[in-house]
Amino acid sequence: MASSSTPSSTTSAPVSNPSVAPPPSNKPTRILACVLCQHRKIKCDRNFPCSNCTKANVKCTPSTPAPARKRRRPNQDLQERLARCEELLKEYATEKPEGSVTTPRASQQPAFDESYLKWQPAGQLVRDEGSMRFIDNPMLSSVYDELRAMRQIVDSDDHDDSTSDTAPDENSDLLLGDGSPNIKIETLWPDAAHVIRLWQIYLDRVNPLTKIIHVPTLQPYLAEAVGGSQSLPKNVEALLFSIFLMAVVALDADECQNLLGYSREEALQRFSSGVRLALLRLGFLKTHDLTILQALVIYLISLQGRYNRHAAWILNGVVIRIAQKMGMHRDGETLGLPPFESEMRRRLWWQIIMVDSKYAIFSGLSHSLLPRNWDTKPPKNLNDADIFPSATEPFQDREGPTEMIFCLLIYAFAKFLVETPGFDTMFLLTSQSDFVSERDGGGPPEQEMIEYRRTVETLGNNLLSILDKYCDPLAGPVHQMAVNMRTHIIDKIMELITPAKHQPEWGGEVRTLKDNTFKIAIGTLEHNEANYISTKDKGFMWFSLAHFQIDIFMYMAGQLCHRTEGVLVERAWRQVEVVYTFHPELFDTNNKLHAALAVFILKAWRKREETLTQRTGHRPETPFYVDRLRTSMPNDDYKSEPTPPDPYTPAALAVGAHTGIPDNNLDSFLGYLDASALDWDMFGNQINGGAGGSSFGAFGMGPQVEW
Prior knowledge:
- The structure is a single chain.
- The chain is mainly α and 707 residues long.
- It has 33 helices and 2 strands.
- The protein has helices at 2-5, 9-16, 35-40, 51-56, 76-94, 116-119, 138-157, 173-176, 192-210, 215-218, 221-226, 234-249, 253-260, 264-282, 290-302, 309-325, 332-335, 339-362, 405-419, 423-432, 446-470, 477-497, 513-536, 541-545, 550-559, 567-582, 592-616, 624-632, 637-640, 651-659, 663-666, 681-687, 693-697, and strands at 124-128, 131-135.
- Strands 1-2 form a two-stranded antiparallel sheet.
- The longest helix is centred in the middle third of the chain and has 25 residues, at 446-470.
């Protein structure tokens, strides 16, 4: 480097004085292949004319070497910015935040204070190659500005080999499959007639409960979509695939067969593949686009009730990180975004919050992955027609009913869950508070119970205030759905939060913690039944069916194997009929989980049949679901095997027996028992006629000797 920077008369003369001829070079001249041989990519003998051209009887044209690429001088502006960037990085590396000398333990961390947002910088949205990223560190924001300016300098100096193609994302296959190139996405697109029908079903049944898309903005693409997906923007293609998928989720089997001409399962598989393939080809993990995120969130909602909820919750964590990278956790007004974009970001962010809270509860987790310093405001009470991309003034709430009513209600409940950490744990403590003698510890402090009841009352008042301001039951089915949902939420929470001794069954059929857990399971299924009935004729039953928890139903079925009399037992058998009526997929005993459930139901019915016969003197009529299950079960031994002894307990109970955890505690966690996570392959051997109940008995599930 030193020698190159030192002036020299021998090296500088050719540059400073072009009249001086350069010294002659002893390097031999390179002979290139002729033009024809280069074009045909064959070996040339480098004689002119060459042998190949002579044989072809064509003119042999010598090729000329490409002009030497001009050596670019260092760009002074680029060097200055590079130096500035290095200074910023050094400053960032040595910077120490205030209070970083000592780090308190997690248990000593102060509670989160909303005032933190008042002095925290709003952050910055930066655009890069068509995508948008959020950075809230001021130092890194400056570094990024310098790097972006440097890139612009380089791009302006050299346009050689420029391309707009997006490199494939090698990380996406970890989440959505490998995106096989053998599948042509065009073959997954619905027929022209089906495009409009599926779109309309989505607008009628799904959009009122989600409000993720802006219908007037997306609707013009439907004319192009009818002719296929080739002319659509790729992000819109992914979004429409997710919309088609959710439309199929909102259909029952008969409706789907009549509409599309093929089964619902085939349609779900087809459009799920379309969504995944479209997202993979877009590189959704590194392409920060609002439309792509909308498609991903709708796809995530479609998984509810038909996919492993733990895996879905993990995928939702990815969605949260993408949204956070786009700065959606900061309100659009704070970031200086246009009113329309701010409002659409609010709708999407709050839907992500609701989905995350829901999946977290289903997965047995009380904490979500939401960033702690988010300040995105709730969406406004506005119809899609009230907001438009060209708006320059912030939108204000419309007075009276709008199509946002259900979402506003759900978002208020999501806010309650986020702001009340440990609320689900409090439910469990409440259910055990009157059975202290059965536990190895005391119940929750009474003062905490009182505070939580007050928060529930506040939630009820907030939801009622929303209904009073924005709801009109005569305005349409979604408003009726909102009224029913508010009642359902409050009734279910109050039932869970009310101590057992204050409930009418106390002292009668509820004497132990197991009795109370059995009653809670029945009440949960009864709430589901009320939702099924209230949404059946409104087109929203898919929403209610998606909240069915097979673990709770399996727990109740296991309890019926030894509980034979009483009001609770009659209520439970009523729910068995309701569940098999609204969930016909449970008759598919090729699914090992459904087959295990069928074993419990058949054994419980055998016990009930004996009890009713002894009581009345005649054999009771066999329910339709028992007949169907007997027909579908592959092994006759399960249809006549003796009923297991008392009592049945969830799978976690068998684990507790080996870990020293008191058995009576674990029934409270029935909502968190994931039967689908068990190794039902063990169970498959017994279904096929194998003996050996002991191997399966280690899980506390299925026929075994020690119950």
